[in-house]
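[step 3/7] inverse_fold.run input=structure_tokens len=226
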């Protein structure tokens, strides 16, 4: 009976989490559609407006669910923590580590060891169509969405006991899913995206405050966009 209840609970959590992923993907897709109408400014503005409204609603729903979840079940005591100089310096160290990782990845691409990720190609093409709005989305909105979904909600749905085994399983599984969301095939680029995801997962588990890994994610995307 207990096993059946556990499987039912986890099954519902998987369905709910996938629904949040779908909400994020649908809202971002509507936003990106505006780039297809660059030759028709009026239509582009209308689609962009719908995309911004959809993004605001999606972000509100996912953010609301995250904080509601923390109120009900929060064994790791995630929440807003005081910011100190020590935390800022460690965040900078994590950012430097991510930049070194990104440099190594770029070296592998330029050397022909691995191909340019399709996700990066799509972002580059979108940037040419809507440079300002794509920059806003990539640097500000996407990190908030992805940290809420892949770190915030995910880690409190699954492996949510506060011990070493569950914490590492939560970080690794979150990182691998984050990688798959950006590279939907199991290759070296998937591992590289997963590596970036592990930096972000570690930041969330270390700080127990989503704002820090959102900030880290924004800095990473800013440097990539530049």
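[step 3/7] decode complete -> sequence:
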């Amino acid at each position: 009976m207990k096993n059946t209840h556990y499987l039912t609970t986890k099954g519902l959590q998987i369905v709910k989490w996938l629904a949040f992923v779908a909400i994020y993907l649908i809202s971002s897709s509507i936003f990106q559609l505006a780039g297809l109408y660059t030759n028709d400014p009026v239509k582009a503005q209308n689609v962009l407006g719908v995309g911004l409204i959809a993004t605001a609603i999606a972000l509100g729903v996912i953010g609301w669910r995250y904080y509601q979840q923390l109120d009900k079940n929060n064994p790791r005591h995630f929440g807003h923590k005081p910011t100190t100089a020590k935390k800022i310096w460690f965040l900078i160290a994590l950012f430097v580590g991510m930049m070194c990782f990104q440099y190594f990845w770029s070296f592998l691409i330029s050397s022909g060891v691995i191909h340019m990720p399709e996700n990066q190609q799509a972002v580059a093409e979108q940037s040419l169509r809507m440079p300002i709005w794509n920059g806003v989305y990539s640097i500000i909105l996407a990190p908030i969405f992805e940290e809420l979904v892949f770190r915030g909600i995910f880690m409190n749905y699954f492996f949510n006991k506060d011990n070493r085994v569950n914490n590492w399983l939560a970080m690794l599984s979150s990182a691998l899913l984050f990688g798959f969301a950006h590279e939907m095939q199991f290759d070296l680029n998937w591992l590289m995206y997963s590596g970036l995801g592990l930096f972000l997962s570690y930041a969330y588990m270390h700080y127990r405050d989503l704002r820090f890994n959102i900030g880290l994610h924004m800095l990473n995307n800013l440097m990539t966009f530049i």
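[step 4/7] annotate
The helical segments are 2-33, 41-72, 85-110, 118-129, 131-157, 164-182, 188-207, 210-225.
The mean pLDDT is 89.
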